[in-house]
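TICKET: design request
STATUS: open
ATTACHED STRUCTURE:
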């Protein structure tokens, strides 16, 4: 009887020592690998000690991606892909940054963004229709500060005319009045009538 108890005690002691040893090894691996380790030890039917370890990969949180359309005064307007929770200033950076004439004070750079949203970065001198964080900008375009893409938003103004307008204002120290755009090749009285209520010089 004492012999049986002694054998069982020896087995339990061996199992305990092995479990402590494996746990120490597992702790070291966990420290450097950052992966949880499960250790199992049991005595099988053949009275032999069976030890097994299982490494469980750590759970990682998947970051959702969203698409936002950045328009207006950025160097590379278009669709940008950002992480959910990022802000307008992050999207502007991915769109190549703001242009020299962008009016960043007119937008909320800390505004959170949602998937499928569009944001318009106005030029200095453009008038917003509201102060809402999701606003689109419209109204009169300042022909003295607008870049080519902004000028091309005007009806009947293509790439060639927009570039001629920029060249004219650079050579003549800006437009002195809105009707001065009729000095630009391709803009006559009829086209000016279509544009006069959509443009300004201040």
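STATUS: resolved
RESOLUTION: sequence designed for all positions
ATTACHED SEQUENCE:
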């Amino acid at each position: 009887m004492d012999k049986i108890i002694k054998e069982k005690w020896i087995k339990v002691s061996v199992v305990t020592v092995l479990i402590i040893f494996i746990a120490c090894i597992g702790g070291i691996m966990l420290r450097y690998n950052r992966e949880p380790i499960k250790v199992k030890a049991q005595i099988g039917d053949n009275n032999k000690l069976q030890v097994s370890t299982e490494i469980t990969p750590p759970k990682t949180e998947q970051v959702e991606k969203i698409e936002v359309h950045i328009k207006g005064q950025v160097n590379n307007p278009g669709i940008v892909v950002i992480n959910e929770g990022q802000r307008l200033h992050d999207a502007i950076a991915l769109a190549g940054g703001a242009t020299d004439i962008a009016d960043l004070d007119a937008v909320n750079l800390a505004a959170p963004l949602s998937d499928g949203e569009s944001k318009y970065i106005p030029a200095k001198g453009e008038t917003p229709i509201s102060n809402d964080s999701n606003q689109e900008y419209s109204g009169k375009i300042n022909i003295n500060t607008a870049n080519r893409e902004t000028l091309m938003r005007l009806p009947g103004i293509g790439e060639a005319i927009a570039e001629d307008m920029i060249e004219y204002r650079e050579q003549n120290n800006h437009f002195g009045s809105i009707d001065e755009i009729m000095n630009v090749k391709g803009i006559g009285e009829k086209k000016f009538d279509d544009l006069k209520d959509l443009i300004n010089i201040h």
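CLOSING REMARK: The helical segments are 2-33, 88-94, 148-151, 159-171, 189-195. Confidence is low (pLDDT under 50) at residues 129-138.
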